[in-house]
Amino acid sequence: MLDLQKGCLDLQIIKTPKELNDWAKKNKVNGKTIGLVPTMGYLHEGHKSLIQKSSSQNDLTVVSVFVNPAQFGENEDLDSYPRDLERDKTAAEEAGADIIFHPSAADMYPESYGTYVSVDSDITKILCGKSRPIHFRGVTTVVAKLFNITMADRAYFGQKDAQQLAVILRMVSDLNMNIEIVPCPIVRESDGLAMSSRNTYLSSEERKQALVLSKSLKKAEEAINNGEKDLKTIKDGIRKIISEAPLADIEYIEAYTFPGLSECGSIISEKTLIALAVRFGSTRLIDNIIADPK
Ligand SMILES: Nc1ncnc2c1ncn2[C@@H]1O[C@H](COP(=O)(O)OP(=O)(O)OP(=O)(O)O)[C@@H](O)[C@H]1O
Ligand SMILES: CC(C)(CO)[C@@H](O)C(=O)[O-]
Ligand code: BAL
Questions:
Q1: CATH class of residue range 2-184
Q2: Which of 174, 183, 246, 273 has the most C-beta neighbours closer than 10 Å?
Q3: Which annotated residues bind (R)-pantoate (predicted)?
């Protein structure tokens, strides 16, 4: 009954931080819980799974659609990043969102803007932080702003961006932020490719060859489940499968403890993130598994 009533509500688009903050204050005073799903838009089933989860756990769900300039390096794809708000409205509404927050860059970062939130630790320098040195500072800054604007009780992040999830968990813990972070599993295409807005950049040949990513990680997971604990053997196995794709240009295949992201020894003995970033042409894809040998 409640779900039916929810489904009848029209999705509302809010464009300014002030309007959204007023909406949030009003709803908090009325005792409503708010879930936040931060995204850069071009929504797919991965995003929809986060929205559905939020909608099942909160009275109200806000989906932010904002391609955040602060997390893109100079030679990255800020301008070409796919955008389609009409499509996002349909997807967000189908998944149970109440609000799309779609601010302009000028409203989020006015000329006077000067405050950044930065997790000053190795966890932002390893993995994707090596090739994207300003990325996580941009992510934590915008996410902290979104937490404040929406006054959310819970926020939903995909494990596809596992390092991002770990960095957000650290920010929330370090800054005593009063919000629950809900990690959500990776949603994949039926052939295994992790869903990502950037998959649209792939040519059909690149798309075909990109399957080596999920295939290699699946094999690694099977090996671990069958008792393999030697990290070098596991990483070599992943590298071998990915190298079978002539268009694959490996940036990294690495393992760290999760969610702490500390160095792990040569033998997997605790919850371990095995993550990779691989380029196909100009498209950089990431994927991972979290292995738990216990
Ligand atoms: N396949 C997926 N499964 C689960 N969560 C996902 C998936 N793809 C993205 N997410 C999550 O959705 C949120 C918003 O991500 P984002 O808008 O960057 O989407 P994306 O598809 O990852 O885009 P990109 O191509 O830029 O990596 C993040 O928390 C991210 O981890
Ligand atoms: C969390 C996020 C929306 C912040 O811009 C972005 O990094 C993303 O889409 O994962
Ligand atoms: N999903 C992470 C956002 C980015 O690559 O900028």
A1: alpha beta
A2: 273
A3: 71, 164
Tell the CATH topology of 197-291.
Answer: Pantoate--beta-alanine Ligase; Chain: A,domain 2 (3.30.1300)
Measured distance CA(180)–CA(138) in Å, rounded: 21
Q: Which of 37, 40, 59, 61 is nearest to 50 (CA)?
A: 37
Which residues are near ligand 1 (CB < 6 Å)? 39-40, 46-47, 49-50, 157-158, 160-161, 184, 186-187, 194-198
Cβ-based neighbour number of residue 263 at 10 Å:
10
HSE at residue 124, side-chain half, CA atoms within 13 A, is: 19
Distance of CA 75 to the CA centre of its chain: 21
Provide φ and ψ at 157, rounded to 5°. Answer: -130, 140
d(CA 31, CA 19): 19
CA distance 121 to 290: 21
- Atom nearest to 135 CA in ligand 3: 6
> Which pLDDT tens digit goes with each residue over 226-282?
999 999 999 999 999 999 999 999 999 999 999 999 999 999 999 999 999 999 999
Portions of the chain given CATH number 3.30.1300.10: 197-291
Q: Are 16 and 148 contacting, i.e. CB atoms less than 8 angstroms apart?
A: no
Tokens of 119: 């997790």
* ipTM field: 0.97
